[in-house]
Amino acid sequence: MASSSDYSTVHNPTVTLNNGEKMPVLGLGTWKGKPGEVESSVQIALRVGYRHIDCAKAYQNQTGLGQALQELYKEGKVSRKDFWLTTKLWNTDHAEVRKNCLESMKELQTEYLDLYLVHWPVTQHKGPALTPSMKDTWQQMEKLVEEGLVKSIGISNFSVKKIEDLLQYVKIKPAVNQVELHPYFRNEKLHKYCDSKGIHLTAYSPLGTPDSAAMQNRGDQTPHLMSDPAVKKIADKHGKHTAPVLIRWAIQNGTSVIPKATGVSHIQGNLEALNFELSKDEFETISNLKTQMRMLVGAEWTDPAGPYKNVVELWDGEVPEENLRLLKERDAKKSSDTPGEL
To answer: Which one of 7, 50, 59, 308 is the catalytic residue?
Structure first.
Protein backbone atom coordinates (compact mmCIF):
# COMPACT_ATOMS: atom_id res chain seq x y z
CA MET A 1 0.00 0.00 0.00
CA ALA A 2 1.66 3.20 -1.20
CA SER A 3 0.80 6.36 0.73
CA SER A 4 0.60 9.99 -0.36
CA SER A 5 -0.02 12.27 2.60
CA ASP A 6 -3.14 10.82 4.27
CA TYR A 7 -4.22 9.12 1.04
CA SER A 8 -3.33 5.59 -0.02
CA THR A 9 -3.51 3.61 -3.22
CA VAL A 10 -4.43 -0.06 -3.17
CA HIS A 11 -4.91 -2.59 -5.94
CA ASN A 12 -8.65 -3.25 -5.83
CA PRO A 13 -9.46 -5.79 -8.58
CA THR A 14 -12.46 -5.10 -10.77
CA VAL A 15 -15.15 -7.28 -12.29
CA THR A 16 -16.31 -6.57 -15.84
CA LEU A 17 -20.10 -6.44 -15.96
CA ASN A 18 -22.22 -7.62 -18.87
CA ASN A 19 -22.25 -4.09 -20.34
CA GLY A 20 -18.45 -3.71 -20.21
CA GLU A 21 -18.36 -1.47 -17.11
CA LYS A 22 -15.66 -2.35 -14.57
CA MET A 23 -16.71 -2.38 -10.92
CA PRO A 24 -14.22 -2.67 -8.01
CA VAL A 25 -14.85 -5.95 -6.19
CA LEU A 26 -14.49 -4.52 -2.67
CA GLY A 27 -16.73 -1.63 -1.68
CA LEU A 28 -17.90 0.14 1.45
CA GLY A 29 -21.46 -0.62 2.54
CA THR A 30 -23.38 2.16 4.32
CA TRP A 31 -26.51 0.33 5.53
CA LYS A 32 -27.29 1.17 9.18
CA GLY A 33 -24.73 3.99 9.12
CA LYS A 34 -25.65 6.60 11.74
CA PRO A 35 -25.83 10.32 10.88
CA GLY A 36 -22.31 11.71 11.01
CA GLU A 37 -20.81 8.23 11.14
CA VAL A 38 -21.40 7.36 7.50
CA GLU A 39 -19.96 10.65 6.25
CA SER A 40 -16.75 10.07 8.18
CA SER A 41 -16.59 6.43 7.05
CA VAL A 42 -16.90 7.31 3.37
CA GLN A 43 -14.19 9.96 3.61
CA ILE A 44 -11.86 7.56 5.43
CA ALA A 45 -12.59 4.80 2.92
CA LEU A 46 -11.80 6.91 -0.13
CA ARG A 47 -8.63 8.22 1.51
CA VAL A 48 -7.30 4.75 2.34
CA GLY A 49 -7.98 3.34 -1.12
CA TYR A 50 -11.61 2.20 -1.50
CA ARG A 51 -13.07 3.00 -4.90
CA HIS A 52 -16.61 1.63 -4.51
CA ILE A 53 -19.35 3.12 -2.31
CA ASP A 54 -22.78 1.51 -1.89
CA CYS A 55 -25.76 3.43 -0.54
CA ALA A 56 -29.55 3.62 -0.88
CA LYS A 57 -32.40 6.05 -0.40
CA ALA A 58 -33.77 3.76 2.31
CA TYR A 59 -30.58 4.18 4.37
CA GLN A 60 -31.44 7.88 4.77
CA ASN A 61 -27.81 8.91 4.40
CA GLN A 62 -27.54 10.19 0.83
CA THR A 63 -27.60 13.90 1.71
CA GLY A 64 -24.83 13.60 4.28
CA LEU A 65 -22.88 11.33 1.96
CA GLY A 66 -23.13 13.88 -0.84
CA GLN A 67 -21.85 16.65 1.44
CA ALA A 68 -18.96 14.44 2.60
CA LEU A 69 -17.99 13.73 -1.00
CA GLN A 70 -17.96 17.44 -1.86
CA GLU A 71 -15.65 18.11 1.08
CA LEU A 72 -13.36 15.36 -0.15
CA TYR A 73 -13.29 16.66 -3.73
CA LYS A 74 -12.02 20.00 -2.45
CA GLU A 75 -8.87 18.26 -1.21
CA GLY A 76 -8.06 17.61 -4.86
CA LYS A 77 -6.98 13.98 -4.67
CA VAL A 78 -10.25 12.16 -5.41
CA SER A 79 -12.82 13.18 -8.02
CA ARG A 80 -16.16 11.68 -8.93
CA LYS A 81 -14.73 9.73 -11.87
CA ASP A 82 -12.28 7.94 -9.56
CA PHE A 83 -14.83 5.73 -7.77
CA TRP A 84 -17.93 3.63 -8.30
CA LEU A 85 -21.20 4.83 -6.75
CA THR A 86 -24.29 2.65 -6.33
CA THR A 87 -27.68 3.61 -4.94
CA LYS A 88 -31.14 2.06 -5.05
CA LEU A 89 -34.78 2.67 -5.93
CA TRP A 90 -36.97 2.26 -2.87
CA ASN A 91 -40.08 0.08 -2.75
CA THR A 92 -42.64 2.90 -2.67
CA ASP A 93 -41.04 4.76 -5.60
CA HIS A 94 -41.59 2.34 -8.49
CA ALA A 95 -44.26 4.52 -10.13
CA GLU A 96 -41.82 7.42 -10.61
CA VAL A 97 -38.40 5.93 -11.22
CA ARG A 98 -36.80 8.88 -13.02
CA LYS A 99 -38.01 11.40 -10.43
CA ASN A 100 -36.61 9.36 -7.58
CA CYS A 101 -33.35 8.66 -9.36
CA LEU A 102 -32.86 12.40 -9.91
CA GLU A 103 -33.65 13.08 -6.25
CA SER A 104 -30.99 10.59 -5.18
CA MET A 105 -28.50 12.14 -7.59
CA LYS A 106 -29.27 15.59 -6.19
CA GLU A 107 -28.73 14.39 -2.62
CA LEU A 108 -25.49 12.68 -3.60
CA GLN A 109 -24.47 15.76 -5.63
CA THR A 110 -23.54 13.70 -8.66
CA GLU A 111 -24.32 14.06 -12.36
CA TYR A 112 -24.50 10.32 -12.94
CA LEU A 113 -24.72 6.99 -11.12
CA ASP A 114 -22.52 4.03 -11.89
CA LEU A 115 -25.23 1.61 -10.79
CA TYR A 116 -28.90 2.00 -9.87
CA LEU A 117 -30.66 -1.01 -8.37
CA VAL A 118 -34.28 -1.96 -7.77
CA HIS A 119 -33.88 -2.47 -4.02
CA TRP A 120 -36.57 -5.16 -3.61
CA PRO A 121 -39.10 -6.85 -5.90
CA VAL A 122 -41.65 -5.12 -3.66
CA THR A 123 -43.84 -2.02 -4.05
CA GLN A 124 -45.70 -2.19 -0.72
CA HIS A 125 -49.08 -2.10 -2.46
CA LYS A 126 -51.28 -4.82 -0.98
CA GLY A 127 -53.16 -7.07 -3.37
CA PRO A 128 -52.83 -10.16 -5.53
CA ALA A 129 -50.51 -8.56 -8.12
CA LEU A 130 -47.37 -6.47 -7.84
CA THR A 131 -48.40 -2.87 -8.56
CA PRO A 132 -46.80 -1.20 -10.49
CA SER A 133 -45.68 -4.29 -12.34
CA MET A 134 -41.99 -5.10 -12.48
CA LYS A 135 -42.18 -4.74 -16.25
CA ASP A 136 -43.31 -1.13 -15.85
CA THR A 137 -40.58 -0.46 -13.30
CA TRP A 138 -37.84 -2.02 -15.42
CA GLN A 139 -38.83 -0.14 -18.55
CA GLN A 140 -38.44 3.08 -16.57
CA MET A 141 -35.03 1.87 -15.33
CA GLU A 142 -33.92 1.24 -18.92
CA LYS A 143 -34.77 4.83 -19.85
CA LEU A 144 -32.28 6.05 -17.25
CA VAL A 145 -29.50 4.30 -19.16
CA GLU A 146 -30.75 5.57 -22.50
CA GLU A 147 -30.79 9.12 -21.09
CA GLY A 148 -27.25 8.81 -19.72
CA LEU A 149 -28.19 9.34 -16.08
CA VAL A 150 -27.08 5.86 -15.08
CA LYS A 151 -24.31 3.69 -16.52
CA SER A 152 -25.63 0.34 -15.26
CA ILE A 153 -28.93 -0.90 -13.85
CA GLY A 154 -29.59 -3.92 -11.73
CA ILE A 155 -31.67 -5.59 -9.07
CA SER A 156 -31.42 -6.58 -5.44
CA ASN A 157 -33.04 -9.41 -3.49
CA PHE A 158 -34.39 -11.11 -6.63
CA SER A 159 -34.88 -14.88 -6.71
CA VAL A 160 -34.18 -17.13 -9.70
CA LYS A 161 -37.86 -17.13 -10.68
CA LYS A 162 -38.14 -13.35 -10.46
CA ILE A 163 -35.08 -12.96 -12.68
CA GLU A 164 -36.48 -15.51 -15.14
CA ASP A 165 -39.67 -13.46 -15.34
CA LEU A 166 -37.69 -10.22 -15.77
CA LEU A 167 -35.57 -11.61 -18.59
CA GLN A 168 -38.68 -12.31 -20.65
CA TYR A 169 -39.08 -8.63 -21.51
CA VAL A 170 -35.86 -6.70 -20.80
CA LYS A 171 -34.07 -4.68 -23.45
CA ILE A 172 -31.20 -4.07 -21.03
CA LYS A 173 -30.25 -7.06 -18.91
CA PRO A 174 -29.59 -6.43 -15.20
CA ALA A 175 -25.85 -6.02 -14.70
CA VAL A 176 -25.92 -6.90 -10.99
CA ASN A 177 -28.08 -8.69 -8.44
CA GLN A 178 -27.17 -7.56 -4.92
CA VAL A 179 -28.15 -10.19 -2.36
CA GLU A 180 -27.37 -11.61 1.05
CA LEU A 181 -24.48 -14.02 0.59
CA HIS A 182 -21.90 -15.36 3.04
CA PRO A 183 -20.62 -18.78 4.16
CA TYR A 184 -23.66 -19.29 6.42
CA PHE A 185 -25.94 -18.56 3.43
CA ARG A 186 -24.11 -19.35 0.23
CA ASN A 187 -27.19 -18.83 -1.96
CA GLU A 188 -25.75 -21.41 -4.35
CA LYS A 189 -28.75 -21.95 -6.61
CA LEU A 190 -29.06 -18.21 -7.27
CA HIS A 191 -25.30 -17.80 -7.71
CA LYS A 192 -25.12 -20.56 -10.32
CA TYR A 193 -28.16 -19.20 -12.17
CA CYS A 194 -26.88 -15.61 -12.27
CA ASP A 195 -23.50 -16.80 -13.52
CA SER A 196 -25.25 -18.66 -16.34
CA LYS A 197 -27.08 -15.46 -17.35
CA GLY A 198 -24.11 -13.11 -17.08
CA ILE A 199 -25.56 -11.28 -14.08
CA HIS A 200 -22.94 -10.45 -11.47
CA LEU A 201 -23.68 -11.05 -7.79
CA THR A 202 -22.74 -8.51 -5.15
CA ALA A 203 -22.73 -9.93 -1.62
CA TYR A 204 -24.24 -7.83 1.13
CA SER A 205 -23.97 -8.83 4.81
CA PRO A 206 -20.77 -10.76 3.98
CA LEU A 207 -19.88 -11.06 7.68
CA GLY A 208 -23.21 -12.68 8.51
CA THR A 209 -24.88 -9.53 9.92
CA PRO A 210 -23.90 -10.10 13.57
CA ASP A 211 -26.80 -7.92 14.83
CA SER A 212 -29.48 -9.68 12.79
CA ALA A 213 -30.81 -11.59 15.81
CA ALA A 214 -32.14 -8.41 17.36
CA MET A 215 -33.29 -7.03 13.99
CA GLN A 216 -35.28 -10.16 13.18
CA ASN A 217 -36.48 -10.88 16.73
CA ARG A 218 -34.75 -14.25 16.83
CA GLY A 219 -33.43 -13.98 20.38
CA ASP A 220 -30.26 -16.02 20.77
CA GLN A 221 -31.07 -18.46 17.96
CA THR A 222 -28.80 -16.84 15.39
CA PRO A 223 -25.41 -18.45 14.72
CA HIS A 224 -22.46 -16.05 14.63
CA LEU A 225 -20.37 -16.51 11.51
CA MET A 226 -17.48 -14.38 12.76
CA SER A 227 -17.12 -16.69 15.77
CA ASP A 228 -17.17 -19.92 13.76
CA PRO A 229 -14.24 -22.07 14.95
CA ALA A 230 -13.23 -23.11 11.43
CA VAL A 231 -13.15 -19.50 10.23
CA LYS A 232 -11.23 -18.36 13.31
CA LYS A 233 -8.67 -21.12 12.82
CA ILE A 234 -8.02 -20.02 9.24
CA ALA A 235 -7.85 -16.38 10.33
CA ASP A 236 -5.30 -17.23 13.04
CA LYS A 237 -3.18 -19.07 10.50
CA HIS A 238 -3.01 -15.96 8.32
CA GLY A 239 -2.60 -13.58 11.26
CA LYS A 240 -5.88 -11.89 10.34
CA HIS A 241 -9.14 -10.98 11.98
CA THR A 242 -12.09 -13.06 10.78
CA ALA A 243 -13.57 -10.15 8.79
CA PRO A 244 -10.93 -9.99 6.02
CA VAL A 245 -10.98 -13.80 5.81
CA LEU A 246 -14.74 -13.76 5.14
CA ILE A 247 -14.36 -10.90 2.65
CA ARG A 248 -11.56 -12.82 0.93
CA TRP A 249 -13.82 -15.87 0.71
CA ALA A 250 -16.50 -13.75 -0.99
CA ILE A 251 -14.02 -12.43 -3.56
CA GLN A 252 -12.66 -15.90 -4.33
CA ASN A 253 -16.25 -17.10 -4.54
CA GLY A 254 -16.69 -14.85 -7.57
CA THR A 255 -18.73 -12.03 -6.04
CA SER A 256 -18.08 -8.41 -5.28
CA VAL A 257 -18.60 -7.54 -1.63
CA ILE A 258 -19.73 -4.47 0.34
CA PRO A 259 -19.08 -4.83 4.08
CA LYS A 260 -20.10 -1.94 6.30
CA ALA A 261 -17.26 -0.55 8.38
CA THR A 262 -16.66 2.44 10.65
CA GLY A 263 -13.45 3.88 12.02
CA VAL A 264 -10.01 3.87 10.47
CA SER A 265 -8.84 0.51 11.86
CA HIS A 266 -12.03 -1.31 10.84
CA ILE A 267 -12.11 0.20 7.35
CA GLN A 268 -8.43 -0.44 6.73
CA GLY A 269 -8.67 -3.90 8.26
CA ASN A 270 -11.22 -4.99 5.68
CA LEU A 271 -8.82 -3.94 2.92
CA GLU A 272 -6.48 -6.69 4.13
CA ALA A 273 -8.71 -9.05 2.16
CA LEU A 274 -6.90 -7.80 -0.94
CA ASN A 275 -3.38 -8.76 0.16
CA PHE A 276 -3.66 -12.52 0.69
CA GLU A 277 -5.41 -15.59 -0.71
CA LEU A 278 -7.13 -18.57 0.85
CA SER A 279 -5.67 -21.92 -0.15
CA LYS A 280 -7.92 -24.34 -2.00
CA ASP A 281 -8.43 -26.35 1.20
CA GLU A 282 -9.21 -23.22 3.24
CA PHE A 283 -11.69 -22.01 0.64
CA GLU A 284 -13.38 -25.42 0.55
CA THR A 285 -13.55 -25.58 4.35
CA ILE A 286 -15.39 -22.27 4.51
CA SER A 287 -17.54 -23.23 1.50
CA ASN A 288 -18.81 -26.31 3.30
CA LEU A 289 -19.81 -24.92 6.69
CA LYS A 290 -22.94 -26.74 7.74
CA THR A 291 -25.04 -23.79 8.91
CA GLN A 292 -27.26 -22.37 6.16
CA MET A 293 -29.87 -19.71 6.90
CA ARG A 294 -30.92 -16.27 5.76
CA MET A 295 -30.05 -13.69 8.40
CA LEU A 296 -32.46 -11.24 6.73
CA VAL A 297 -35.55 -13.16 5.76
CA GLY A 298 -37.76 -10.27 4.51
CA ALA A 299 -40.90 -11.15 6.47
CA GLU A 300 -41.71 -7.44 6.70
CA TRP A 301 -42.53 -7.48 2.98
CA THR A 302 -45.19 -10.17 3.30
CA ASP A 303 -48.90 -9.69 3.86
CA PRO A 304 -51.92 -12.04 3.82
CA ALA A 305 -53.44 -9.83 1.12
CA GLY A 306 -50.46 -10.36 -1.18
CA PRO A 307 -48.66 -10.13 -3.47
CA TYR A 308 -46.34 -12.16 -1.20
CA LYS A 309 -48.32 -13.88 1.53
CA ASN A 310 -45.26 -15.39 3.20
CA VAL A 311 -41.48 -15.57 2.86
CA VAL A 312 -41.67 -18.71 0.73
CA GLU A 313 -43.59 -16.70 -1.88
CA LEU A 314 -41.27 -13.71 -1.52
CA TRP A 315 -38.20 -15.84 -2.25
CA ASP A 316 -40.00 -18.36 -4.51
CA GLY A 317 -38.98 -21.24 -2.28
CA GLU A 318 -35.36 -20.14 -1.79
CA VAL A 319 -35.63 -20.33 2.01
CA PRO A 320 -33.38 -22.66 4.03
CA GLU A 321 -34.96 -25.20 6.34
CA GLU A 322 -33.56 -23.48 9.42
CA ASN A 323 -35.42 -20.28 8.57
CA LEU A 324 -38.64 -22.21 8.07
CA ARG A 325 -38.18 -23.91 11.44
CA LEU A 326 -37.62 -20.60 13.24
CA LEU A 327 -40.59 -18.98 11.52
CA LYS A 328 -42.79 -21.91 12.50
CA GLU A 329 -41.66 -21.59 16.12
CA ARG A 330 -42.32 -17.84 16.07
CA ASP A 331 -45.83 -18.32 14.64
CA ALA A 332 -46.58 -21.00 17.23
CA LYS A 333 -45.48 -18.67 20.02
CA LYS A 334 -47.66 -15.88 18.63
CA SER A 335 -50.64 -18.23 18.63
CA SER A 336 -50.01 -19.36 22.18
CA ASP A 337 -49.65 -15.74 23.34
CA THR A 338 -52.99 -14.73 21.77
CA PRO A 339 -55.89 -14.93 24.29
CA GLY A 340 -58.73 -17.16 23.24
CA GLU A 341 -62.11 -15.69 22.32
CA LEU A 342 -64.71 -15.49 25.09
So the answer is: 59
